[in-house]
Design brief:
Helix content is 47%, strand content 9%. The two termini are 31 Å apart.
Length: 136
C-alpha cells in the first residue's frame, strides 16, 4: 500500500535466527527480492545483552565476546557461535543478500529512475558504495 501511494519503502531482513538454515536464508533473500522494497537491508542476528536470547545462549556457552562495541547490527562480528550455522556461511548469505538485491537489474533501474526524478541520484550512488564497503 505504501508503494501505491508513492511512499519510499524499506525492507529490513534478518539472517541467522536460531532456527535458520541455508534453505530458510535463501527463502528470506527470495522474499526480499519479491517484495522489491526501495531500500532492502539485512543483518545477521545479534543477541544483545539483556535479551532472552543472549541469556539463553550465554548459559549454553554460545556467547564468545563481551566486547560491547562489537555488538553492532551494521557490521556483523562473530560475537557468538551459532547453534547450527557456521559464521562463514552466515557471512556468505549476508553478502549474497546484497548482491542479489542491489545488483538486481530491476532494483538498479528503480533506483536510477527515482534518483533522477528526485534529484537524489548522487545521494543514492554514495549510499550504494557505502553499503558495498561492508562486504559482498
Amino acid at each position: 500500500m505504501a508503494k501505491e501511494v508513492g511512499l519510499e519503502t524499506m525492507g529490513f531482513f534478518m539472517l541467522g535466527l536460531p532456527d535458520d538454515t541455508i534453505e530458510t536464508m535463501k527463502k528470506t533473500i527470495d522474499f526480499a527480492i519479491e517484495l522489491e522494497p526501495d531500500i532492502p537491508k539485512t543483518t545477521i542476528l545479534t543477541p544483545y545483552p539483556g535479551t532472552n536470547l543472549f541469556d539463553e545462549w550465554s548459559k549454553k556457552g554460545y556467547i564468545k565476546s563481551r566486547v560491547w562495541s562489537e555488538y553492532s547490527y551494521h557490521t556483523p562480528y562473530t560475537v557468538y557461535v551459532h547453534p547450527t550455522l557456521d559464521w562463514d556461511v552466515l557471512k556468505e548469505y549476508y553478502n549474497l543478500f546484497y548482491r542479489r538485491t542491489y545488483l538486481n537489474s530491476r532494483f538498479i533501474l528503480r533506483r536510477l529512475r527515482r534518483g533522477i526524478e528526485t534529484g537524489e541520484l548522487l545521494h543514492d550512488v554514495y549510499y550504494f558504495f557505502r553499503t558495498l564497503r561492508y562486504g559482498w
